[in-house]
Structures are given as structure tokens and as C-alpha cells.
Amino acid sequence: MAGSEATGMSFLGDVATMLGRAPQKPGPRSDAAEIAHGRKRGKGMEVARLIEELASRPKVHTWRNRRWAVLIGVNLLFTLSYWVDVQLVEGSLTASRVVGFHLADVYSSFLVMLAQKHVAVNLVIGLVTVSLLWALVGGRAYCSWVCPYHLLAEWAESLHSWLAARGIVQDHPLHRGVRVVLWVVFAALALVTGHTLFLTLNPIGILSRAVVYGPSLALAWVLLLLVFEVVYARRAWCRYLCPIGLTYGAIGVAAPWRVVYQLDACAHEGECRKVCEVPHVLDLTIRGRATDVRMDVGPDCTRCGLCVDACPTESLRYEVKGLDALL
Fold first, then answer.
1. All residues at 6 or more sequence positions from 189 whose CB lies less than 8 Å from its CB, including other chains
2. Residue 99 and residue 116: Cα distance in Å, rounded?
3. pLDDT, tens digit, for every residue of 69-93?
């Protein structure tokens, strides 16, 4: 199969997987991938010893800590600007102005214009600017590097894992296609009713406004979501339900900043999939799945860096497409 044709099919497959399709069996491998897989056959004992050695190494959280610092810093900018009244950053993550320039969440703006049946210039400017940013950085990077709910969900996931290890709770995966259905349903409701129900239920907007202006009763809904994730479905909102995450994933589907997998270095020990919020994007790290020696992780990846931190052989790394230097 020609390289460009294979790449195109892989890209379309990644998009379909982002929209909810189950990961498919790997397609034809490149010659280089066949050689790499062949070198790994018959080395079970050697790989087992390597995994045992790697498991004893101390865990690092370099990218996680950087991401948490950025996420907290971005949200505190809104708070400090409001309370100090310097007007550098005004509003919240739903809609804001940065030094007077409009920024707006893409999906929320779309719903508002559907509900009002009117194209607002400020919203168009804001959503176009935000779209351009996440088209470069990688859409779902918004989820892990900016979204305040993501941080709470990470902590809730840690509690879920602790309880699950003791047999107290069990994860009940949902179908990832649910968020596609919700995307359409909320848009249809806005168009038909003239009301943006999603903005009332959106935990991202609720938390962002609470951080800036102070807490409200709406935080009870956020708490309910977190409890649901702890006791029933791990990372339910971010993984299965959030239309905003789906929107930014589509916007950043071809972003130059991505996580890249290198087959030759991989020990296939699975540490990356254990920590990944969307582990289906790392199916390519399963032994025998990679179709090339160097592959981009799919567009549903949040660029959170947990897999990069967890990978003991550095087979997962950040890269900017078109640049030779790896970050």
C-alpha cells in the first residue's frame, strides 16, 4: 500500500475512533515495522526481565507537574484580574477578553448563536481566534492544560483507582459515541427552544465562574458528576460525555504538536495505557499493533503527558511536526 494512501486511511480511522468507533485491527505494516516486530519475536524472557527492571525505577511526573502549573495559572489569571481589577483578562473560559481581544469557547458560542438565531460578531471573532490556537496546539490539549474540571477529575480518578484496588468500586465504561449524540442533542435543543441547556450543565463553565466570581449552588452538580466518576464510571465526563472536548478534538485533528510513538524503543509493558485518560489512542503500543516504526498518537489524545512521564523507555515523546528537535 502506498505510504500516502496508508497515512490517509490511518488519519480517517483516527477520526472515526475519536467519534466513537472501537479501535480497529491494525492494517498492513510498513517494511520497517515488520523488521522491528520481527526483532522482538522470541525475546519473551528478555522483555520480561526488562519490564521487571523498569518497574523498579522511580516514577516521574515532570509533564504532569508542568501541566498542572499551566492549568492553575491560566485559571488564576481570570481570578486575579477580576479581584485586582486590572482588566487584563476578563470573563471566564466560556467567553472572555484578553487585553481587550475577544476569546470564546467554540461549542458554547455555536449554541448561543443557534439559540439566538443571530450571528454575533464578537462571538465569531472569539471562536475563530480560539479555533486557530487549538488547531496549532492540538484541540484536546485544552482539556488537560486549561480545563479546571479536568484537574478535579484527575484527583477523582486517583480516588476511584484506590477504591477499585480494594474492591470497593468498579469501573463501568460507557460508549464514547455518547458525546457525539450529546453534541447533536444540545445543538438541536438550542435551535428549537432558544435556550442553551448545555451552558447550565457544563461543569467547565460552572467551575470557571466559581473560580472568578465565587461559589454558587451550581457546584452541587459538579460534585455529583465527580461522585459518579468515583463510584461508577471512571472519567465519565471527559472520556464519554463532554461535547466541548469533542469539538476541540475535531479542531486540532491535524495539529503539529502531538505525542509520537517510537516502536523500536517500546517494551510493551503497558504503563502508558494504565495512566491514559483515553487509552484507546494508545492501542498502537500493544505488541504487534504498530504499523510503522514511528506513529502519531490519534487526535483524541489530550496531550496531558501522563504517558510520556510513565513510559520507562521514552518511546512516547512530544514532537512538533516539521521540526527535527524533540521537546
1. 195, 197, 198
2. 27
3. 999 999 999 998 888 877 788 899 9
